[in-house]
Amino acid sequence: MQTYCTRRGYVQLMKEQCQRTCGYCRKYIGSCFDMVNPQTGVNDCSAMKFYCTNYGYVLLMKEQCPKTYGYCRK
After folding, report:
1. Cys-Cys with 45: which of 10, 26, 49, 65 at CB 3.0–4.6 Å?
2. Distance in angstroms (rounded) separating the CA atoms of residues 12 and 62
3. pLDDT (tens digit, 0 to 9) for every residue of the chain, 74 residues total?
4. What is the pLDDT of residue 4?
5. Any residues with CB less than 8 A from the CB of 69 and at least 6 apart, and which?
6. Do residues 18 and 5 touch, judged by C-beta distance below 8 A?
7. End-to-end distance of the chain based on CA atoms, in angstroms?
8. What values do phi and psi take at 37, rounded to 5?
């Protein structure tokens, strides 16, 4: 996956989806945003609200939709 971190056409997606893998975290400290579904290019967080308290999905939702569900650090 790291090969896409600097590949033209993928940089923005990698900054949004793979900050840690690509080493972009320092640039985004303090920002809190929901990720975009890479298959559709759309943010699906509001449609997935029922997952935010589902035990099996809480960690995924904290990672993918922190802004929508109030998981952002203050």
Report:
1. 65
2. 21
3. 778 777 888 878 877 787 777 766 644 445 788 888 777 778 888 888 888 888 898 888 888 888 888 888 76
4. 79
5. 45, 49, 52, 61, 62
6. yes
7. 30
8. -65, 115
